[in-house]
From TrEMBL:
It holds the Pfam family CoA_binding_2. Gene3D superfamilies: NAD(P)-binding Rossmann-like Domain. InterPro entries: CoA-bd, NAD(P)-bd_dom_sf. This is CoA-binding protein. Residues 14-110 form the CoA-binding domain. PANTHER family: COA-BINDING DOMAIN-CONTAINING PROTEIN, CYTOPLASMIC PROTEIN-RELATED. SMART domains: CoA_binding. SUPFAM superfamilies: NAD(P)-binding Rossmann-fold domains.
């Protein structure tokens, strides 16, 4: 069912037209995949917002402990990257909805069908079980 959340039109729009991505799970460990993905999108002109309980500055951007802690001056949040284990993804998606995000992106192997459905019902675009770096490389403008 995750393929239902891999619409190429949505993927292209998120990669090409968005500006601000909040990465939930982005801490200061450069060995983690979330760090690699955030850096890639930052290098391609996206503004990133690290979201991690430590709330540290990462990749030169001020971090916040939760999506709710991101101040209004840092919004809107175009995409929330959900770099948490699948069992925690639903809570992050609910936070993204509450924060007024426009989309959620659940990377490879982070699958939560119920959370994806809630996000869509709330009007958010949803990409699930896809890697931003791979999709960026494959995108057909």
């Amino acid at each position: 069912m995750a393929d239902a959340y891999a619409d190429l039109t949505v993927i292209r729009r998120l990669l090409n037209e968005t500006k601000t991505w909040a990465f939930v799970g982005l801490g200061d460990n450069p060995g983690r995949e979330v760090h690699t993905q955030a850096r890639l999108l930052q290098q391609r002109g996206k503004r990133i917002i690290p979201v991690h309980p430590a709330g540290r500055t990462v990749l030169g951007e001020q971090g916040y402990a939760s999506l709710a802690d991101i101040p209004a001056s840092e919004r809107p949040i175009d995409v929330v990257g959900v770099y948490r284990r699948a069992e925690h993804a639903g809570a992050v998606v609910d936070e993204a909805i509450a924060a007024g995000a426009k989309a959620v992106w659940l990377p490879l192997d982070v699958i939560d069908e119920a959370a994806a459905k809630r996000a869509q019902e709330a009007g958010l675009d949803v990409v699930m079980d896809r890697c931003p770096a791979v999709e960026w490389a494959l995108r057909r403008n």
